[in-house]
Amino acid sequence: MNVVAALCHRFPEAALVARRFLDKSSKRAAETKPRKGHAFDPTKLVQYLHETVGAPRDVAQVTVGQFSHGQSNPTFTVRWGEKAVVVRKQPGGKLLKGAHDVGREFQFASHLGNQGVPTPHALALCDDTDILGTRFWVYDYVDGRHFRDPYLERASIDERPLLYKSAARAAATLHAAAPPPKLVEALGGPPKAGYLARQVKTWTRQYQGADEKLGVTTDARVADHADRLRSACEDHATDVGGDVDLLSVAHGDFRCDNLIYDEDGSVRAILDWELATLGHPLADVAYLCMPYEIPPFVAGPLSGFRGLNLDKHGVPPLEDLVGAYADALRSKERGADVAALCKAGLPHFDLFSSVGYFRIASICRGVYSRAKMGTASSANAAAVGALADTLLDVSVRLAGDHAAVLRGARAPLEAFN
């Protein structure tokens, strides 16, 4: 852990004050002109949108912008009159195997929208790389409230608990929806057993792939930690792998930053389906709760609540957030089955969180490699990449917490009673 991160851990309230003062992302416009390295001639795109979604044929009648946040697939808006669509494309350059799969995003958004899951309305998937240089998909722009920080600072302190719990309820809606057969078929059929262990294997490979692109050898402690994580997942495969017949759609990046809220505090849309798969629902719940495990960091979009006075900042206790998820499941058709699956995995909640942080560390490493090559999708990619080592430390700590729960030295999280 670097010196700045250590100071954030020691003085979390001061770190949050410093973050508010230094953080430029909160002052940056949500949309900008397409940035250097992402700009393109819009002529072909406008022609494609004219043919598929009814955009004007004349380029002069449309406005193209780019979202200033997001670390993976460059995302643009195209506006004309009162209409707006979002175009989400793969980044340029050589991509890691399986990464940035916009076709996968399109499949999830297309199929789940008919299941009552709040997804953006998918309009088209384009495999013609002559238009933007890479594949892309198009969906209707979703208007509403969006929060780019985990503290929901543009909301009042009084309404923040509702917004956090609305996120938990949206996760319950997603997990209680039976994966549509056509979606399962599009993903190559039912998943194999060992969901969480497969996640560790995938993100170890992605971490090493990012280092190869940087021309460096992966630190030995990354491989050592990954081996221990995978062994823990295999040792408890029944509880953390889940019954493949009961698995849900796991979003893979379920956090408030990927939600659009309505004015009443409900969730209008879940965004960014790139990491979605058929998996264990508790993985998403642990991911939503991950800000509880890190302090406010002075720089970068990743930051958390650890060490803060939660009530002062309108953040519900972790147990209350998980409880809101469990309560929401009770009213769902598959809710009892999903709740039973989660309850069986609850003693391993820290293991789910540890794998989640290992995944974020791997993603940050990939963001850093793309920043070095000039193909990163976010304006603050370098700051994100610098967090990889710190997040790996958090993953190691949580793996230790999981071991402590198993030997009875630490109380497990309680919910789903």
Describe the structure.
With 417 residues, this protein is of the alpha+beta class. It folds into two domains: 27-140, Phosphorylase Kinase, domain 1, CATH 3.30.200; 146-407, Aminoglycoside phosphotransferase (APH), C-terminal lobe (Aminoglycoside 3'-phosphotransferase, Chain: A, domain 2), CATH 3.90.1200. Helix content is 45%, strand content 10%. It is built from 16 helices and ten strands. The protein has helices at residues 3-10, 12-22, 43-53, 102-112, 129-132, 160-176, 181-186, 195-214, 220-235, 237-241, 281-288, 318-329, 335-345, 349-373, 381-385, 388-406; strands at 31-32, 63-67, 75-80, 83-89, 122-126, 136-140, 248-250, 259-261, 267-270, 277-279. The strands form three sheets. The chain has a six-stranded antiparallel beta sheet, covered by helices on one side. A hairpin with a 7-residue loop joins strand 2 (63-67) and strand 3. Helix 11 (281-288) crosses helix 14. It is globular and about 65 Å long. The chain starts with a helix and ends in an 11-residue tail after the last helix. The mean pLDDT is 88.
Condensed summary:
By secondary structure, the protein is α+β, with helices and mostly antiparallel strands. It is built from 16 helices and 10 strands.
Primary descriptors:
417 residues, globular, 10 strands, 2 domains, six-stranded antiparallel β-sheet, Phosphorylase Kinase, domain 1, single chain, Aminoglycoside 3'-phosphotransferase, Chain: A, domain 2, two-stranded antiparallel sheet, alpha+beta
Distance between the termini: 38 Å
Please state the average pLDDT score: 88
Query: What's the helix count?
Result: 16
Strand order of the largest sheet: 1-2-3-4-6-5
Envelope shape: globular
